[in-house]
Every structure is written in structure tokens, then in C-alpha cells.
Amino acid sequence: MARHLSLLAILWIAISGFRLLGSGGVFFAGRMMHRVGYPDPFAAHFIPRLFPMLGGFLFLGALIGFLCGWGLLQKQSWARTLGIVLAAFSILDPPFGTALGIFTLWVLLPAQSEQEFSVLATPGNRDR
User: Torsion angle of alpha carbons 97, 64, 112, 88, nearest 10°?
Assistant: First the structure.
């Protein structure tokens, strides 16, 4: 498990970077649509609220993913639990999120992984 942990952490940081870029793109698209205007009254009411909400959701997901990646790199005890929770949500984000979610569960979920991670997360063993 220890050899896969660094790769897993780097992958979480990388996919979070892409999600951060996606968040910026959604915010930008929302601003551009606001400048152009909305011909439909329903769209004028609905879309200005949709884009910031979606962009904020992507931004929050990116921050939590960065936190997970950093925690796994630092071998923090809470990072395993956060990684498993994020993997469950990430499976619904094909294709890269699904692949990362499956890889995360494969690395972190087995009982043997919990024991190995507990050993790695103790302060004296974090340098391994």
C-alpha cells in the first residue's frame, strides 16, 4: 500500500487542479452569459443563480480534493477516511473521476490497508 499511496495523493492533487480549472470556466461562462443577456424570462431568472452555484460546488470539491491529496502525502490519519468518502462521490464523475475513485477504494479500503496506513500515520513512521 505504501508504494501506491504517493501516486494516489498526486492523482488527487492533479484531478483537483483540473476541477479548479473547470470551476473557473463555469464562473467565466456565467459572467459572459450575464453580459450577453437572456432573451427568455425564465432563463433570466434561473441561469444567473445556476452558474455561481455550480462553480462554487466545483471549487469546493477541488479544495477538498487538494486537502485529501495533501493529507495522503503527509500520511495524516484522517486522510484515509476522507479519501474513501471522496472516492465514493468521484465514481460518479466519468471517466477520470471513476478511475480515480476505483483506484482509491482499491488502495485504501481493504482491512490490511487500514493496518498499514495506521502504521504509516504514526509520527515516527511518516518519513517512509
Answer: -40
What is the 8-class DSSP label of residue 128?
Answer: -
Helix axes 111-121, 2-36, angle to 10 degrees: 90
| CB 65 within 8 Å of CB 100 | no
What is the rounded CA–CA span in Å between residue 69 and residue 8?
A: 7
What pLDDT, in 10s, does the model give residues 6-35? 999 999 999 999 999 999 999 999 888 877
Its pTM stands at 0.84
Enter the DSSP assignment of 39. Answer: S
* Cell reading at 104: 482509491
